[in-house]
Design a protein that fits this description.
Elements (H helix, E strand, L loop, with lengths): L35 E5 L25 H12 L5 E5 L9 H9 L10 E6 L4 H11 L3 E5 L5 H8 L5 H13 L6 E6 L8 H11 L2 E6 L17 H8 L5 E4 L9 E5 L5 E5 L12 E4 L4 E3 L8 E2 H6 L4 H12 L20 H4 L2
Helix pairs in contact: 1-2, 1-9, 2-3, 3-5
Length: 353
């Protein structure tokens, strides 16, 4: 199968007085420490989920050589990044993924520690790759799975006969030692809201952490509306039908999910509620799209072309200077629900999950 060549939109590199080679850790103008990099390595995907992709035709593909992602990651680690999450698209479609994971695992943070390397996947190819990924140095894995019955799963992903493969992938990840495996479910009213209690049972029986995510306006098709969003309070009420729910403390101040367990200590649930309960005030993330552009928020209206600095022969110090100037522009919050809110020009699959 062949794919279109990479298309890159040029951007003027800003100038400023940021010192080159500075080891000051990344912080934005709101004094938020930036410690997490979401690194998309492809916008290809073998699913066409209704909350993300269009169901129509082929789309252009944007990918860089793995060596470029590795260099970018090393620069970010030298600026205080501690966690790197590989995303897509579907990152398992990159045939040289294991080499990249191994190279990242050999890098070090400013504190001299091994970076926390995570990966988000739809799980379709995971059963065969879970153990090799762990051996390469992967720390954690998250599987996107939006239903626990094959029919609903196929209706959302628009891919038949994949449910069992994803289930096998989750179990293979657990067996490989990538536990606790996280399973993400994007909830949409009328599509999979009947799955809430069933996912709670799944978390308890499969010993995975299930995380419900509110539907966000990041899809290619124009299907989002607030009526489709199932808010946190409704999810909590429904989960209490399964068992007595207990709120758990966050693992860190910047954690995106509110954590819950059951009183019998079987099963953990997370709820990521950016629409009804934004968590922008503690955001620690910056994103790099698969074509090498920095995005300071999922809902940014601008891309900032870091890869253009590389193509022009920029040094690591010049890349660091550019990154600092862009991070200093990081938005205070998103504006979902505000009058005049404008969706990003790119869908989630093009930004990186």
């Amino acid at each position: 199968m062949s794919f279109p060549s990479i298309t890159v939109v040029e951007e003027q590199v800003p100038t400023g007085n940021t010192p080159l080679g500075s080891t000051v850790r990344l912080r934005d103008k709101f004094d938020r420490a930036i410690t997490d990099l979401r690194l998309s390595i492809t916008d290809r995907c073998n699913f066409r989920c209704v909350y993300c992709r269009s169901g129509q035709g082929a789309t252009p593909v944007h990918e860089l050589p793995m060596a470029d992602y590795a260099r970018i990651a090393r620069v970010f680690l030298g600026m205080g990044i501690e966690k790197i999450r590989l995303t897509g698209g579907e990152p398992l479609l990159r045939h040289d993924l294991l080499n990249l994971v191994a190279e990242l695992a050999g890098m070090r943070t400013l504190d001299g520690d091994r970076p926390d390397i995570a990966l988000t996947t739809n799980g379709h190819l995971l059963a065969e790759l879970a153990e090799p990924l762990r051996r390469a140095g992967l720390s954690r894995i998250t599987v996107s799975m939006d239903a626990v019955d094959p029919e609903t799963f196929a209706r959302i992903t628009r891919v038949p006969r994949s449910y069992e493969r994803v289930l096998d992938g989750i179990r293979a990840a657990k067996a490989a030692g990538l536990a606790p495996v996280k399973v993400n479910c994007v909830l949409m009213r009328g599509w999979n809201d009947d799955q809430i209690e069933r996912f709670a049972d799944f978390a308890r029986s499969e010993d995975v952490i299930v995380r419900f995510i509110e539907f966000m306006p990041l899809e290619e098709d124009k299907v989002w509306s607030r009526d489709l969003v199932i808010p946190l309070e409704e999810i909590v009420t429904r989960l209490n039908n399964v068992g007595d729910l207990v709120e758990l403390p966050p693992n860190s101040v910047s954690e995106t999910a509110r954590r819950y367990g059951f009183s019998d200590r079987r099963g953990e649930i997370g709820i990521i509620a950016p629409v009804s309960h934004p968590f922008c005030g503690h955001c620690s993330r910056v994103r790099l799209t698969s074509d090498g552009k920095i995005r300071t928020c999922l809902f940014s209206q601008l891309d900032h072309d870091l890869h253009a600095v590389m193509r022009r022969g920029g040094t690591d110090e010049e890349m660091s200077s550019y990154i600092r100037q862009i991070v200093d522009r990081k938005e205070e919050r998103h504006h979902i629900g505000d009058t005049g809110f404008i969706k990003p020009a790119r869908a989630m699959v093009q930004i990186g999950g």
